[in-house]
Amino acid sequence: MKTVLKSTGLVLVAGVIGLTGCGKSRETVTMAGSTAFQPFAEKLAEDYMAANPAVNITVQGGGSSMGVQSTLLGNAQIGMADLVKLPPEAASLKGYIAARDGIAVVLNPANTVQALTLDQVRGIFTGAIKNWKEVGGSDHAIAVISREAGSGTRSSFEQIVGNMKLSGDALIQDSNGTIRETVANDANAVGYLSHGLINNKIKSVTVDGFSCTETDIMAGSYKLVRPVFLMTQATVSPACQAFLDYILSEAGQKLIHENGLIKAK
Prior knowledge:
By secondary structure, the protein is an alpha/beta fold. Helix content is 29%, strand content 28%.
C-alpha cells in the first residue's frame, strides 16, 4: 500500500522514498545501501526535494555490501556504507564521508547492567559469557541479537571489538530497527545499533567507562565508532552531484546532526 503525502508529493513505499506527481518529468537520483544511514538519507532527500521539485530521489536499504555492489553495477548512483573503511572492491569508486556514527551496545531498560568492558562485550557476543550474572546482572541467560552478514554495522562492530566469531546462538536481525524492537521486547537481550537510533525503549551501556554520546565520541574516548561513506562512480549526473553537495554542505550536515548523527567534520 502506498502512503501519499499530497502536500509535498512524497511517496513512501516499502522503505523506498521518492517524489511523484504529474506533469514534467523529473531528474532521478538513486541511493542504496546502509540501513543504519537510510532514515537519515530519507530525511535529507525529503528536505532536498522540497526545495528542488524537479529532482526525484529514491532511497533504499539493503546493507552496506549492497551499497557497494549497487554503485559498482550502476544500479544506484549513490551507495551508502557504514564501515570502518571501504573494501578493496570499492577502490574504483569515489568515496565521501557523510557522517560519523557510534555503535551503541544496547539492553532492555529492565536490565540492571549499566556498564561493560570491551572484553565483556566480546565475551557476550562470542558466547564465552552466557549469563548476565557473569557481568553483574541477574541470573538469566543472555539473548544475543546481531545483524546479518553483509551489514556494515556488524562488520564495523566485529572489526573494532576484535577477535570476534559471533556466537552460533545469536538471533540474526536484518536492520537496526529490528535490533531495537527485539531488545525492547526482551529483558535479557543485548544488541548493537547506530547511536542515532536509540530511543526510550532501549538503553545503551558504557564500554570501558565511556558512553556512546557525541561528547565521548568526539573526544576519541568511546571506541565503537565508524564513518558513514557515500560512494559514486567516477562520473555522475549534475543532479546527483548537486544532491551530494547538499549532503556535505552546512545545511545538510546540520540536518544530519539534528537527527542524531555526528557531522562528517
